[in-house]
Design goal:
5-stranded parallel β-sheet, single chain, about 450 residues, mainly alpha
Length: about 450
């Protein structure tokens, strides 16, 4: 038989508990890696100092302390702690919590409602929190690994403060391992390099680091493990990467900006990170092709050829061999001269098209297949460029009511230097023709 809420069952205290659970911090001061929130100048510390706790969203990667912080906030403020998981709970569970919270409130006690993976609740369920958060029936603390801007209702976000938790850095992970050794009364069976490798394997996840440590404490070893034996003994943590969520866009942005910054090494790193995370190489190939036109442009017209060739190569031979073609394209694009002149020119032209509506082309460049069209001036005065000495007539091809505009301004890099020379030449001819017509 188990006890009431918050009480342990008769035999529960004797049941084995994972090391990560036994090592859960008992106070906010012992939480590692989140000093920007919990330090003396941190926003959560200031809230507690003022005796006021607002509803909040804790956004951070797995194993960084979101659940622990929520529980400790409830302890520090004497609020009843009501934990729910959005994976296993529904509307009926929420109603029960809200009813209990109303009863506590009438008796003078507040309730901290902690919802793990709050992004798993749909929009209607999220809307259901609003009146209870609004009137203070519950202090809502939601935990999420996903970007709240994408996953949570704007109405809910407007009633909550969003706090970003960091993945645990190397120093924080080392502190956790040292605490585990103190609790176990013996050191981890690792040499110095293997210990560093263990922290790297955890990839910022404190829970995972402690789970690895627990595996190692259970081993019967005659000597400490080196890195090779450690790798063979325990499972490396899979990289955090959700192809449909923020990690997908973050890494693609990192790759794009590395290429724009002409950093081939960083570009290769982010390409490798995306492939290791299971990203579809075809998506990467599509984005590389876009980059070739958007950021390299006519400074190196071969960039688009290289990107398309890499895409075609991947389609023909697949993974993993085809990934080398993507790597080569990354290097080519990173080291190519850059110009977004065509990208900007097209954007300005689109703006002008929206602004000017349905202005007709000038009549001199319209075909006149019928007598009526000839009679009203279609095609009249058109100068056939090939009949001129320079192969350039200099006529105006913009609508008469719009006037000539300049959109494309090539940069002094790569092939666009040559294009700039051509444009300058044609502009001089155009100005010369205009002067002749004005005389």
């Amino acid at each position: 038989m188990t006890g009431g809420p918050g009480q342990q069952g008769l035999f529960e205290s004797a049941a084995p508990r994972p090391l990560a659970d036994r090592m859960r911090p008992a106070s906010l001061e012992t939480v590692v890696g989140q000093d920007h929130l919990l330090g003396s100048e941190g926003p959560l510390a200031r809230m507690l100092g003022a005796g006021r706790l607002a509803s909040m969203i804790l956004w951070g990667p797995p194993g960084c302390g979101k659940t622990t912080i929520a529980r400790l906030l409830a302890d520090r403020t004497d609020l009843a702690f009501e934990p729910l998981s959005a994976v296993f709970s529904g509307v009926a569970d929420l109603r029960k919590v809200f009813e209990k919270a109303k009863g506590r409130r009438a008796a003078g006690q507040g309730t901290l409602l902690f919802i793990d993976e709050i992004h798993r609740f749909n929009r209607a369920q999220q809307d259901g929190f609003l009146p209870y958060v609004e009137d203070g029936t519950v202090i809502l603390v939601g935990a999420t690994t996903e970007n709240p801007s994408f996953e949570l209702n704007a109405a809910l976000l407007s009633r909550c403060q969003v706090f970003v938790l960091n993945r645990l850095d190397d120093a924080a992970l080392e502190k956790l391992l040292s605490r585990a050794e103190e609790a176990e009364g013996r050191p981890l069976p690792l040499d110095t390099d293997a210990r560093a490798s263990l922290r790297a394997m955890a990839d910022g996840d404190g829970r995972f680091a402690l789970n690895l440590a627990e595996e190692l404490f259970a081993l019967q070893l005659d000597k400490p493990l080196d890195t090779a034996r450690l790798t063979a003994t325990v499972q490396r943590r899979a990289p955090l990467y959700d192809k449909s969520q923020e990690g997908h866009y973050n890494l693609m942005s990192a790759l794009h900006k590395s290429l724009r910054g002409s950093d081939a090494d960083a570009g290769l790193y982010w390409l490798a990170r995306m492939l290791a995370g299971g990203e579809d190489p075809r998506y990467i190939a599509r984005r590389l092709t876009r980059f070739a036109y958007e950021d390299v442009g006519l400074a190196d017209p071969q960039a688009a050829v290289q990107a398309l060739a890499a895409w075609d190569c991947y389609e023909r031979i697949g993974s993993p061999e085809g990934e080398l073609a993507l790597a080569q394209a990354v290097i080519y694009l990173a080291t190519a001269p850059k110009s977004n002149a065509a990208y900007k020119a097209f954007g300005q032209a689109m703006g002008a098209a929206r602004e000017t509506g349905s202005l007709m082309p000038p009549k001199h460049i319209l075909n006149a297949p019928t007598k009526l069209m000839k009679d009203i001036g279609y095609g009249a005065g058109y100068a056939y460029d090939h009949d001129t000495a320079e192969g350039f007539s200099g006529q105006d091809y913009f609508p008469e009511d719009m006037g000539r505009r300049g959109f494309y301004r090539p940069v002094e890099r790569g092939f666009e230097r040559e294009i700039a020379k051509r444009l300058d030449y044609w502009n001089r001819l155009r100005e010369g023709r205009k002067s002749d017509e004005d005389q």
